[in-house]
Amino acid sequence: MQRVAEAVADDPAGCAALTVTGLAELTGTSEATVVRTARLLGYPGYRDLRLALAGLAAQQQSGRAPAITTDIAVDDPIADVVAKLAYDEQQTLADTAAGLDTVQLAAAVTALAGARRTDVYGVGASGLVAQDLTQKLLRIGLMAHAHSDPHLAVTNAVQLRSGDVAIAITHSGTTGDVIEPLRVAFERGATTVAVTGRPDSPVTQYADHVLTTSTARESELRPAAMSSRTGQLLVVDCLFVGVAQRTYDAAAPALSASYEALAHRHRATRRGS
């Protein structure tokens, strides 16, 4: 993988012109190694890396300042960075909201509201989103667990059954560590939900309900790990609020109790008291 990474760094234009087979031959590696390298660099696959290399090569030929994202250059003032990122986040949220299937969302909310137990799978940045959802559900008295360890995810999925819910969060929809436990949960009869930026990806094969996030704001150095998380968090908030509405009589007291239990940790204390 180091040889592949060095090759694309040294000659982005030349590598952009190569197929996955061609780059494997150039670096004396295998096609699988090239694909793994692309994923390690934050791209869903070699095709996405190849497009990024082509864009980088065009930028170098134009003489423009190197880009950190599609719109932000290394010499941009910090005020411009803030404004551009804020606009980008707004667009991601707007695109996700516009493309979100509210019928699928309502069905997922119904399943969550009545679930005996909810397991949420996610790794990397998506794992942070999985934790966010489970913490929200726990605050309103629902049994929920986030799993980022693939072994624990599968062993827990084996225990699921009809009446339980399993949610997989993966922007690319191709993350094996997330797909496998969702498949197991699906086969065990649990209601399954996929939160993904690619509705035709492998993870959706095992999803009863698919919630799609925006894919429009990806760039060379701001890949799924950053931009897609914004859309994922919006979907998570929609799920949580929907469940809180459905279970309000139980959720409101549980939320109040959780606030009260933590209140003393947020009060300022006097020195020596």
Question: What does this entry look like structurally?
Answer:
This protein is α/β, with parallel strands linked by helices and 273 residues long. The protein folds into 2 domains: 1-62, Arc Repressor Mutant, subunit A; 82-263, Glucose-6-phosphate isomerase like protein, domain 1 (Rossmann fold, 3-Layer(aba) Sandwich). It is 58% helix and 8% strand. It has helices spanning 2-10, 12-16, 20-27, 31-40, 46-62, 78-99, 102-113, 125-139, 150-157, 176-187, 224-246, 248-263, and strands at 118-121, 144-147, 165-169, 191-196, 209-212. It has a 5-stranded parallel beta sheet with strand order 2-1-3-4-5, sandwiched between helices. Helix 7 (102-113) crosses helix 11 (224-246), helix 8 runs parallel beside helix 11 and helix 9 (150-157) packs parallel to helix 10 (176-187). The protein starts with a helix and ends in a 10-residue tail after the last helix.
Order of helices and strands: HHHHHHHEHEHEHEEHH
**CATH architecture classification of the largest domain:** 3-Layer(aba) Sandwich
Number of strands: 5
Mean pLDDT rating: 86
> Which descriptor suits the 3D outline?
globular
What ranges have pLDDT less than 50 throughout 5 or more consecutive residues? none
- Count of DSSP-assigned helices: 12
- Main sheet summary: 5 strands, parallel
